[in-house]
Amino acid sequence: MSLEAIRFDRNARSLNILDQLLLPYATEYIPINTIADAHNVIKKMQVRGAPAIAIVGILSILVELDHYVDGKFKDQSFYDLGDFANFQNQLIQRLEYLVTSRPTAVNLSNAVNEVIELIKSTKAKSIDELYPEIFKYGCDLIDDDYTNNVKLGDHGKDWIIKHLENEGFNGKFSVLTICNTGSLATSGYGTALGVVRSLWNHAKSFTTSNEESNQEPATKKSKPSGAHFSKVYTLETRPYNQGARLTAYELVYEQIPSTLITDSMVTYLISSLAKNPDSPPIKACVVGADRIVKNGDTANKIGTYQLALICKQFGIKFLVAAPKTTIDLKTPHGDQIIVEQRPSNELQNVSGGVIDIQTNEVVKDSKGHAISGKVGVAAPGIEVWNPSFDVTPHDLIDGIVTEDGVITKKDGEFDLEALFV
Ligand code: MRU
């Protein structure tokens, strides 16, 4: 079973999210009962990743309204339960507040805008009648996200393999990725990490075919050749270390061949592998996205832009993998994206499991729970600049991988509108 960032019980209508600040040393789920709870866990980054944020945000509406349906709502002060029109306006206000939790990822605001449209245009005359409509929207959001991730993972895999084979490359290759874009950032499977997962599944079957070809001559099948995945190098992703904490955790859990590097090692890694004929070279870089605007400029985790520049220098294909829910056609150019600034202490301090210096193991309390702690790593008083994302210009992006396929540029420009006709 893949890792579960979001636990939504459709019968009990309960929502719990995995506290990603405690990973990889402790696995604890936090109950979400209200829209305010969702705002809080999104802002604190206990749940993170553009699709996961949207799903938790939308499901929080359901659990909040479910308290009304259950009659547990009587002490609340934010809804006028006696007047449905007032209730609709108040719910819309709460959704507008939810979107302020994190500004850069567009999936949440895209989904919230659709729910607001649903609330405005509904024929429902009561909360009881409106509830099933929002319930269906939330369930479809999770289900579609999963299905679309699998599709885009396979499209990205096919594109990379085909591209390499057209170039005449037939051996093992490695890929790069940054941040976390796997099951923990989505409803499951993942976006960029979904492409990696599909590449790994392809490589596993390739290995099996090769093994079969070692049979006795009478039964020997023709030996397949072709480009296939060897391993993924995952960047640590400073300052919040989503690569080291989350991607690495997921890759180990899924047993996908992988190596962790710091963000500053990429250039040396690529050039070292290129000089060593025994090491599968880096042939592609796949990243996720928080917002892809109309011209293809892409906001993603800080460090993505410099990764794209390095790939350009080495002629490595650079792909952005995201569902269509991450596309923002209303914003024409990347300069118009609001990039979230995070608190300075996220850069000045490193947090994680406390490690015993003798054993190198995480220290546990008397109940066996991992103890977490914070270590200061910056000079007190230093000014800090801590943007959570950067914006990669579309000219550095070779392809945008969605559930509909891989879009490439014609005459240097992406036509993302074509995805929505
Ligand atoms: O700040 P985070 O951890 O929410 O940032 C996440 C990323 O930048 C991801 O790469 C992006 O959201 C894609 S998630 C499938």
From TrEMBL:
<feature type="site" description="Transition state stabilizer">
    <location>
        <position position="179"/>
    </location>
</feature>
<dbReference type="GO" id="GO:0005737">
    <property type="term" value="C:cytoplasm"/>
</dbReference>
<protein>
    <recommendedName>
        <fullName>Methylthioribose-1-phosphate isomerase</fullName>
        <ecNumber>5.3.1.23</ecNumber>
    </recommendedName>
</protein>
<dbReference type="InterPro" id="IPR037171">
    <property type="entry name" value="NagB/RpiA_transferase-like"/>
</dbReference>
<dbReference type="InterPro" id="IPR042529">
    <property type="entry name" value="IF_2B-like_C"/>
</dbReference>
<dbReference type="GO" id="GO:0005634">
    <property type="term" value="C:nucleus"/>
</dbReference>
<keyword id="KW-0963">Cytoplasm</keyword>
<dbReference type="Pfam" id="PF01008">
    <property type="entry name" value="IF-2B"/>
</dbReference>
<dbReference type="InterPro" id="IPR005251">
    <property type="entry name" value="IF-M1Pi"/>
</dbReference>
<dbReference type="InterPro" id="IPR000649">
    <property type="entry name" value="IF-2B-related"/>
</dbReference>
<dbReference type="GO" id="GO:0019509">
    <property type="term" value="P:L-methionine salvage from methylthioadenosine"/>
</dbReference>
<feature type="active site" description="Proton donor">
    <location>
        <position position="290"/>
    </location>
</feature>
<comment type="similarity">
    <text>Belongs to the eIF-2B alpha/beta/delta subunits family. MtnA subfamily.</text>
</comment>
<dbReference type="GO" id="GO:0046523">
    <property type="term" value="F:S-methyl-5-thioribose-1-phosphate isomerase activity"/>
</dbReference>
<keyword id="KW-0028">Amino-acid biosynthesis</keyword>
<comment type="pathway">
    <text>Amino-acid biosynthesis; L-methionine biosynthesis via salvage pathway; L-methionine from S-methyl-5-thio-alpha-D-ribose 1-phosphate: step 1/6.</text>
</comment>
<dbReference type="InterPro" id="IPR011559">
    <property type="entry name" value="Initiation_fac_2B_a/b/d"/>
</dbReference>
<keyword id="KW-0539">Nucleus</keyword>
<keyword id="KW-0486">Methionine biosynthesis</keyword>
<feature type="compositionally biased region" description="Polar residues">
    <location>
        <begin position="207"/>
        <end position="217"/>
    </location>
</feature>
<comment type="function">
    <text>Catalyzes the interconversion of methylthioribose-1-phosphate (MTR-1-P) into methylthioribulose-1-phosphate (MTRu-1-P).</text>
</comment>
<keyword id="KW-0413">Isomerase</keyword>
<feature type="region of interest" description="Disordered">
    <location>
        <begin position="207"/>
        <end position="226"/>
    </location>
</feature>
<dbReference type="InterPro" id="IPR027363">
    <property type="entry name" value="M1Pi_N"/>
</dbReference>
